[in-house]
Automatic annotation (TrEMBL):
It holds the Pfam family DUF5050. GO terms for cellular component: cytoplasm. Residues 1-25 form the signal peptide. This is DUF5050 domain-containing protein. InterPro entries: CAP/Cytokinesis_protein, Cu-Rt/internalin_Ig-like, LRP1-like_beta_prop, Papain-like_cys_pep_sf, Transglutaminase-like. Residues 153-246 form the Transglutaminase-like domain.
């Protein structure tokens, strides 16, 4: 079931803003030359819908944009813009364009402004902050740190624009839960509408998903706007990849109820023609998306990515077979000839609900061989956590699990420390454990990266969501951007250099387990 569309009311500037006719004197100076507007509250406004060239038609307006931006970043209560001679007819356009372009400014949703009654020139802007300033400063720091960690963990050297976009999209979908309960109860908190809620708290609604996508893609230099569709109370993105524009709806690519480890691609890099089958928006207001270069993605329902392959179940209900798609050659290979809408991958095996055989739980090798029956129960919602495969019995709703440690086709040989110094094993660490590794020589910070410091799971799979940085010249920090599942892991440190250019005497390998 797709999640219901949800978006804070987005009002168009021209002819659509409700502003009370009530005005009052800012100063009681007798000539009524300086009056202040009523509060204009847009819970959020997608100013990216306004054509940038038409809006910022001259350098003066560009300077005003910067003035407002700086004022909001510095949490100013009063931004004086009298010298710009901007009429009241333009100020809300420019103010909300600043917000639409900058999802990191998630803490204001409206404004008041004072203006000259005769000339209608705006004098001061009074931003309306939705949190206390101390809270804003704390949340902003959290968000900035989280963004840096995410970028460091999922973006690798030499990635193409598409690979970067997919990595950001996958991170958001895999680490976010749609705020369905609050949506149904009409109690959606402010955080769920913005990038902070999605990236820091891991929960939100469509507006938050789209602002998080924009924030992260902007950070890595990929053009992205938020498309607001009040026609369906929904929002998504338009992204530019290799010079071509595409629709991306990360919200609808995130299954409800949340299914661990699974990502859809039906709404990744979609053209207008395909998007119109399920979405409604103001077609004349937004950039045209005509390319079908990524049409191969639109058939992908639930999926798992392993290196340069996507394993997925088809969207066609009559042919929910599992396929393997090669991202290098853009070719697909059919793995099963039975329907498998629910599946998980562990080591060299795919575990799946065989909907051609009553939904019973089966497994099959990644190469399509060794099809094996595991139970005769209709099994759904299959996922892996640590050394176990979990599934839910469709008829009873009971959650079951079985251990998969016995299947060690591709696991790390924990006794093989050839070429590495073995550090003491750490048992039952916390799921959010950060490692601080200290050295007695100052390190070359250029050698501190995910290639030289990394973590693998029990089966030898490289973890992509580990943030590597340096605390100081002597200390490396390895932090998970999302919690580890329970199980066994290995920390590797290799090819580090000191500031003088000397290589680390010994590479290091450390085993640890998560409770």
């Amino acid at each position: 079931m797709f999640k219901k569309r949800n978006l804070l009311l987005i009002l168009l500037i021209i002819g659509s803003i409700f502003v009370s006719t009530n005005i009052y004197a800012e100063t009681n100076n007798g000539d009524n030359s300086n009056v202040i507007s009523s509060e204009i509250w847009f819970e959020k406004y997608n100013s990216s819908s306004i054509d940038n060239i038409k809006l910022l038609s001259n350098s003066l307006e560009e300077e005003l944009y910067s003035k407002i931006y700086d004022g909001l970043i510095n949490l100013e209560d009063n931004i004086n813009i009298q010298s710009f001679n901007i009429p009241i007819s333009k100020i809300t356009d420019i103010y909300f364009k600043v917000l639409g372009d900058n999802p990191q400014i998630f803490y204001t949703g409206g404004l008041k402004y004072s203006y000259n009654l005769d000339s209608k020139i705006v004098i001061n802007i009074y931003p309306k902050y939705i949190y206390d300033k101390t809270v804003i400063q704390s949340k902003t720091k959290e968000l900035d740190n989280k963004v840096d960690k995410i970028i460091s963990s999922v973006i690798k050297p030499n990635m193409s624009e598409f690979e970067k976009e997919k990595a950001i999209h996958d991170y958001i979908v895999l680490n976010t839960k749609y705020d369905q309960k609050n949506y149904e109860n009409g109690t959606i908190p402010k955080d769920s509408y913005n990038a902070y809620g999605i990236l820091v708290k891991g929960i939100g609604v469509c507006q938050g998903y789209s602002e998080a996508m924009k924030l992260l893609l902007d950070k890595i230099g990929i053009d992205c706007i938020v498309l607001a569709a009040p026609e369906m109370d929904h929002a998504w993105n338009i992204v530019t990849i290799d010079g071509k524009k595409y629709h991306v709806d990360a919200t609808w690519n995130d299954p409800i109820p949340d299914r661990k480890g699974l990502v859809r691609y039906k709404y990744l890099n979609v053209c207008d023609e395909e998007m119109k089958k399920t979405h409604i928006w103001d077609y004349d207001k937004y950039p045209k998306c005509t390319s079908r270069d990524y049409s191969f993605l639109w058939d992908i329902d639930s999926s798992k990515s392993i290196e340069n392959y996507i394993y997925y179940a088809s969207n066609e209900k009559s042919k929910e077979y599992i396929y393997k798609f090669d991202l290098n050659t853009f070719k697909k290979e059919q793995i099963t000839n039975v329907r498998a809408p629910y599946f998980e991958i562990a080591a060299d095996w795919i575990y799946f609900s065989n909907y051609s055989k009553g939904g019973y739980l089966y497994k099959i090798k990644l190469d399509g061989t060794s099809l094996t029956l595991l139970n005769k129960v209709h099994s759904i919602d299959i996922y892996r956590e640590g050394d176990y495969i979990y599934y839910t019995e469709y008829d009873t709703g009971l959650k079951r699990k079985f251990e998969i440690k016995v299947e060690k086709d591709s696991e790390i040989d924990e006794e093989d420390y050839t070429g590495y110094k073995k550090w003491e094993e750490s048992l039952n660490v916390a799921p959010n454990k950060s490692w601080a590794i200290e050295f007695n020589l100052a390190l070359d910070k250029n050698s501190i990266n995910n290639k030289n410091v990394y973590i693998k799971d029990y089966y030898g799979n490289l973890l992509s969501d580990i943030y590597i940085n340096s605390k100081d010249d002597f200390t490396i920090i390895a932090t998970p951007t999302r919690n580890y599942n329970s199980g066994t892991y290995y920390l590797y440190i290799e090819n580090l250099k000191s500031k003088t250019g000397k290589l680390l005497k010994e590479n290091v390998k450390m085993k640890f387990s998560v409770k």
